[in-house]
Amino acid sequence: MFKEKYGPWALIIGGSEGIGASLRSEDGYAVVQEVVPGMAADKDGRLQPEDKIIAIDGVSIVGRVPAEVIHLLRGPVASIVAVRVARPGSAQPRDFNVERALVIVPTVTMLRDGDIAVFHIVSFNQSTTQRLTEGLAEARRQTGGQLAGVVLDLRGNPGGLLDQAVSLADLFIHTGPIVSTVGRHPAAQQYFAASGRSVAAQIPVVVLINGGSASSSEIVAAALQDAGRAVVIGSSSYGKGTVQTVLRLPNDGELTLTWARLVTPAGYYLQTHGVVPTLCTSDLGDDEGSLQRGLERASASAPATPLALQPRAGLDERAWSELRRSCPARQTSPAVDLKMAERVLADPRLYAAALHPPHGATALARNAPPVAQPERALTDVDGALSSRQR
Question: I want to staple 232 with a disulfide (CB 3.0 to 4.6 A). Which of 58, 140, 274, 277 is the partner?
Fold first, then answer.
């Protein structure tokens, strides 16, 4: 299925050329799942959710694999693609000419529960930090300046642009390291630190992660956890800690070049290790009893495993495996995660008790090298976006 292999935003990934619609696979058809407001697919109601795309530029796509459908829909900005759809309730197919455009995904959405703002971030494209900044301002306005806490829901977020992960973490961290990159080439040695221009350095923060949180998501989660700026709740993250650049080849192909590894403020590699939450919910259900057990963990002074007290940069692979086994990654996004986050943020004493960063991050911050900035937007943590941004 499209959703399983390519993700729900397969055709509207940030910076790509397309029509502004996400698809799913159903009985051999490409079915419109959602259209981006204001984009080509949305204009004049041309495409609507549940439309079945049956042909593109006169070519039948029934039974085609997702990659073929995506290739046919993508193309140069301002070019026209002819799309034929079967619409529920309509006896005859409908034909639309849709102009392709550069699609920017609305990667950040906000919900508010009283004076707590919950931001769901689905990926990191070139507008993610700006959207979150605007969302924080709106949340402050809605709460009359009394915003009590922020939840960053990064569950299932596969990552994206490195500079956006750095700038987003910078919103919450006033000073200190955010992430470093190391590699064989001298240009791969980079260090990124807080700029001192944070806009939410004092607001309590909870970050939600799971086994689908990768690359840029892990940069943000690790930076806030290591700095003591956020309580991380959920299950262990994926462990995608490499930086890649996508190079366009003369034959119109693409080469993904891995050129660096990511190092957290605490000094450990993200690759294969990922981020282990402060409060683990892997073994919890969504019932009230599970929520209470989770809150008891938040108030306890002792962590679930003694390894959590050791400097993570000093753990060998065997110890890392044991630490991750103490909080196994899971792909689901259970309601108990968000419930715990809101309860922790609502109780300052509970939040303070749960806020214990891994040992070793403070020492690294004191010995940090000079601040560097991303050299170009092409740099991408997971190689999915950058070839579209030249």
Answer: 277
CB 128 within 8 A of CB 164: yes
Cβ–Cβ contacts within 10 Å for residue 203, how many? 19
Backbone angles phi, psi at 17, to 5 degrees: -95, 125
Residue among 81, 35, 88 at smallest CA distance from 56: 81
3-state secondary structure of 222: helix
Ordered domains of the chain (ranges, CATH): 2-103 (2.30.42.10), 108-366 (3.90.226.10)
pLDDT value, residue 303:
62
Average pLDDT over residues 305-324: 84
Q: How far apart are CA 230 and CA 114, in angstroms?
A: 20
Q: Please check the confidence at residue 245 and state whether its pLDDT lies above 70.
A: yes
pLDDT tens figures, 217-231: 999 999 999 999 999
Active-site residues, by number, are: 215, 226, 240
DSSP H or E segment with residue 80: strand 80-86
What's the rounded Cα separation, in Å, for the pair 336 and 329? Answer: 15
pLDDT band at 301, cuts 50/70/90? low
- What DSSP state is assigned to residue 310? S
- Comparing 361 with 356, the larger pLDDT belongs to 356
Note the pLDDT of residue 363.
38
- Record the tokens describing residue 320, joined without a space: 């890392």
Would you say residue 369 has pLDDT above 70? Answer: no
Q: How far apart are CA 34 and CA 211, in angstroms?
A: 25
Q: Determine contact, residues 103/20, Cβ cutoff 8 Å.
A: yes
Alpha helices in the chain (DSSP H): 2-6, 66-73, 128-142, 162-170, 216-226, 288-299, 317-325, 335-346, 348-354, 361-366
User: And the tokens for 179?
Assistant: 């992430």
